[in-house]
Amino acid sequence: MTTKEYSAQERVLDFGGFPGRWEITRSTEETSGELLEMQWEIEEIPEDGPFVHTHPHAEEHYEVLSGVLEVYVDGEWMDVSAGEEHTVPPGTPHTFRNKTSVEVINVHRPALQHEKFFRRFHRLVTERGVSLPPGGFNDVVLLAMLTTEHEDDVYAVSPPHWLFKGFAGLGRLLRYNLPD
Fold first, then answer.
1. Pairwise CA distance, residues 42 & 19, whole Å
2. H/E element holding 107?
3. Residue 151: exposed, middle, or buried by beta-carbon count in 10 A (0-12, 13-18, 19+)?
4. Cβ-contact 20, 43 below 8 angstroms
5. 94 backbone dihedrals φ, ψ, rounded to 5°
6. How far apart (Å, rounded) are the C-alpha atoms in residues 54 and 155?
7. Which end of the chain, N or C, is less surrounded by CB atoms within 10 Å?
8. CA angle 54, 55, 57 (to 5 degrees)
């Protein structure tokens, strides 16, 4: 079996603003699906970060290289400082934020389709102008469609998943489409 060689450009998911610059350091293919590893460089995350979600079938691990990442797990915020690590078990509601710059090694284990989800999310931001937090109706619909197509990888908790499914259905009725 051959492993795809990724160029430096293909490894970098630069979102411009939030959520910053992510580099895939070990791809799904390189680890035979065992994990997806990325290094994040994130400036301040607005408000409470991404929506509260679970990874139904994968754990998410944070290793903070610099700064302080605030991780929300099971209804409580905790600080994970430089030199510290935290693992979120599968199916556990969580999100993250930070009030200053932070560098983090982020791992999803097993990889499942997380890499495809993040690459598609990157394309929505860079090619379609989707913003976080969502800046309007189009952003909400496209993010809901992406999330529900990857519900085995990312499952919305707050706002609730049924709301994401409703917006995704509306997007299909309006003939919205997602990048592959």
1. 6
2. strand 102-109
3. middle
4. yes
5. -160, 165
6. 5
7. N
8. 135
Nearest Cα residue to 48 out of 116, 105, 94, 12: 94
**What letter does residue 161 receive in the DSSP assignment?**
H
Q: Provide the β-strand partners of residue 52.
A: 158
Read off the pTM: 0.90
pLDDT tens digit sequence for 30-68:
999 999 999 999 887 766 678 899 999 999 999 999 999
The Cα–Cα gap between 40 and 106 comes to: 7
**Paired tokens of 69:** 């990442």
Cis bond before residue 159 (omega within 30° of 0): yes
pLDDT at res. 59: 98
Angle at 91 between CA 134 and CA 55, to 5 degrees: 45
Residue with tokens 């919305």: 156
